[in-house]
Structure formats: C-alpha cells, structure tokens
Amino acid sequence: MRSSLIALAAAALLSTGLAQAQSATYAIDPTHTFATFEIGHFGASTNRGRFDKKTGSITLDKAAKTGKVEVTFDTASINTGTAAFDKHLQSPDLFDSAKHPTMSFVGDKFTFNGDKVAEVSGNLTLLGKTAPLTLKATQFNCYQSPMLKREVCGGDFEGTVDRTAHGMNYGVDWGFAKAVRVVIQVEAVKQ
After folding, report:
1. CATH architecture assigned to 23-190
2. What is the mean pLDDT of the chain?
3. Most buried of 44, 50, 157, 172, CB within 10 angstroms?
4. How far apart are CA 127 and CA 92, in angstroms?
5. Sign of the four-CA dihedral 37, 39, 41, 45
6. 96 with 77: CB under 8 angstroms?
7. Contact 115, 143 (CB under 8 A)
C-alpha cells in the first residue's frame, strides 16, 4: 500500500512538472508589434494613430490553455503622421502624457479555439483608471523563426475601448465618438 501511495505521489509530481514545463515566456518583438487605434471624426472620416514605443511579455501554456499578457505603451510615442495632432493627443485634453506617461494592458484570461488563442480578456489602465478590455484574435500562430532560431507566437487582435470609462471625455459633447477601435498586431519571441 505504501509503495503504491509513493508511486501515485511521484506520478502526480511528475505530471505537475510536465504541465509547468509547457509554460513558456515570450518577449514582445517591438519590430513586429504595432498597437493602433481608430476613432470616428464627426461621422465624416476616421482618425488613426499608433504607439511607437511598447514593451511587454507573454506567458503562454498551450497545453493548459492559459496565459498572461503584460504590455506597456509610452503615450508620448503616439504617432498619427501629423505633428500638431500628436501634440494635441499628448495634451491634458486626451492622453495627458506628461502626467500619465504610460498606459498598460494586462490580460490573464485566454480563450482558445483548438490550439490557437482566440481571445484575451483583462484590464486596460489609461489615465490612471482601469477598465475591462477583451481582445479577439482574427489570426494567431506559433512558428519556428528561421532567422531567430526560436519559437515566435503572434497574431492580430481587435477590441473596443470606451474612452469615457477612463475619463477621456474630450469632444464627446460635440459628437466625437466614445468608442475607440484598437487593432494590435503582435509577435513575441520565446525566451
């Protein structure tokens, strides 16, 4: 009886070790990662921009179908292609980059479709206020990079942010949209 309990305990420890061995950490590749936003402008056109500076990591356990994403964006790195518009977006009217130099997304609820990440839910912190955000994958894949000689995982994700949930109310009274579409292209390299 004692030997079968020891064998059972050893098997449980071994299986726990195997499950933990499936978890891997990936560093965000800034050259293949872009976070862009789109917001309607009086129903006539769409304003677009991106954040050029971002850092973060992803922990992914494909076997357990779990993970965690932590990404930080430099709000002063906003880039619309128009310097005057960038300056206004960095002002206290909107991102208030001097007071809030970063915004972050932490996602810890992964939904899979087979072996592919289909959705990541978590929280976006912007202007010091945190609200839920779900990002849906339009594509996702992991591959062996022939140049890096390491596994790379990535995908295209989309979500909608209600900017007023973070206190970003500029222009709402004039008819500017509250809903901001975020589109994130991300690739991360296994460490």
Report:
1. Beta Barrel (2.40)
2. 91
3. 157
4. 10
5. positive
6. no
7. no
DSSP state at residue 82: -
State the Cα–Cα distance between residues 163 and 47, nearest whole angstrom. 15
Residues in the chain: 191
The residues spanned by each domain of the chain are 23-190
Contacts of 107 (CB under 8 A, 6+ apart): 67, 68, 69, 120, 121, 122, 123, 133, 135
Count of CA atoms in the C-beta half-sphere (13 A) of 54: 30
C-beta atoms surrounding 40 within 10 Å:
16
Per-residue model confidence as pLDDT tens digits over 96-131: 999 999 999 999 999 999 999 999 999 999 999 999
According to the model, what pLDDT value does residue 164 have?
98
Query: In sequence order, what are the residues at sequence separation of 6 or more whose Cβ sits closer than 8 angstroms to the Cβ of residue 81?
Result: 49
The total of other beta-carbon atoms located within 10 Å of residue 37's CB is 20
* The model's pTM: 0.85
Q: Are strands 179-190 and 34-41 parallel, antiparallel or unpaired?
A: antiparallel
Q: Which amino acid is at 166?
A: H
Phi/psi at 183 (5° precision): -130, 120
